[in-house]
Design a protein that fits this description.
The protein is mostly helical. It folds into two domains: 7-18 and 30-44 and 52-116 and 123-137, no CATH class; 147-257. Helices cover 68% and strands 0% of the residues. It contains 15 helices and no strands. It has helices spanning 6-21, 27-42, 50-63, 66-69, 74-91, 99-112, 124-137, 140-145, 149-162, 169-185, 191-201, 210-222, 224-237, 247-254, 262-268. Helix 1 (6-21) packs parallel to helix 3 (50-63), helix 7 (124-137) packs parallel to helix 10 (169-185) and helix 11 (191-201) packs across helix 12. The longest helix has 18 residues, at 74-91. This is TATA-binding protein interacting (TIP20) domain-containing protein. It is found in: Nucleus. Keywords: Cell cycle, Cell division, DNA damage, DNA repair, Mitosis, Nucleus. It comes from Erythranthe guttata (Yellow monkey flower).
């Protein structure tokens, strides 16, 4: 798309918003429209002027319509998520929608991460861009504010299941950033949130790829100070011992020695 003046960009965004308010449900019609909208939104700077806010207002409304957010076509849903992700970038650090709509938005965004391993997919680049934007504008912190606990656990599971050696380095880095941010910004770190990480690092988990283990280890190392006591409790809640996991878990938990109780000491000795 050639370079556009601000006025031309506003006109095109406004026209695209009108098209989206009464969209066709056919993927063949929707996908090119969503591609165009995403490209236009990518040209909008953060905290835009009032005229630009007015231009994207119909788009913001249209993108969260139920027929789009819950569309049966996976590529359409990823396309919608990619456009909304651009909206969250534009309005950051403020959320663009009310709490209930934001929960729907995050469910859509999290679901887009599920098939990140499929680099041949039409939507792979969009999934990667959504991931990068969530990391860059820290929108995952809003998920904590909205108490989307189960959704965050699901996101962690998607990351640890989907990461591959053949991914661009930015994908690994964005996953690492998001997971670390969530742990660091959590008021309390529940065992449920740590369980996907611990499950990946369990010595007898042959299904976990080395790159997944590397991601889990990096996240633990990054947030060691914050999660140390929570990590020990999570190991206990799994009725496991430290020697069931990799050295990174053991070393972080052992730093907790001296401030732990009897049960924790048993875990540190490698006894469940």
């Amino acid at each position: 798309m050639p370079s556009l003046s601000i006025e031309e960009l506003e006109e095109r965004l406004s026209a695209a918003g009108s098209s989206l308010l009464q969209p066709s449900t056919s993927p063949d019609d929707l996908l090119p429209l969503l591609d165009q909208i995403e490209e236009l939104l990518s040209k909008v700077e953060q905290s835009p002027a009032k005229s630009m806010q007015d231009a994207i207002s119909p788009l913001m409304k249209g993108l969260v319509a139920e027929e789009l957010v819950k569309h049966s076509d996976v590529d359409v849903k990823v396309g919608v998520a990619s456009c909304i992700s651009e909206i969250t970038r534009i309005t950051a650090p403020d959320a663009p929608y009310d709490d209930d709509k934001m929960k729907d938005v995050f469910q859509l965004i999290v679901s887009s991460f599920e098939n990140l391993s499929d680099v041949s997919s039409r939507s792979h680049e969009k999934r990667a861009t959504i991931l990068e934007t969530v990391a860059k504008v820290r929108s995952c912190v809003i998920m904590l504010d909205l108490e989307c606990d189960q959704m965050i656990i699901e996101m962690f599971q998607h990351f640890l299941n989907a990461i591959r050696d053949y991914h661009a380095e930015g994908i690994f880095t964005s996953m690492e950033t998001i997971m670390t941010l969530v742990l660091e910004e959590s008021e309390d770190v529940s065992p449920d949130l740590l369980n996907p990480i611990l499950a990946t690092l369990k010595r007898n988990n042959e299904a976990a790829m080395p790159i997944s283990k590397k991601l889990a280890e990096r996240v633990i190392q990054n947030s060691a100070e914050k999660i140390r006591s929570y990590l020990t409790q999570a190991v206990i809640s799994l009725d496991a011992a430290l020697n069931d996991f990799g050295e990174v878990v053991a070393s972080v938990c052992r730093e907790n020695t001296g401030t732990v109780g009897h049960n924790n000491e048993s875990v540190l000795r490698g006894q469940p």
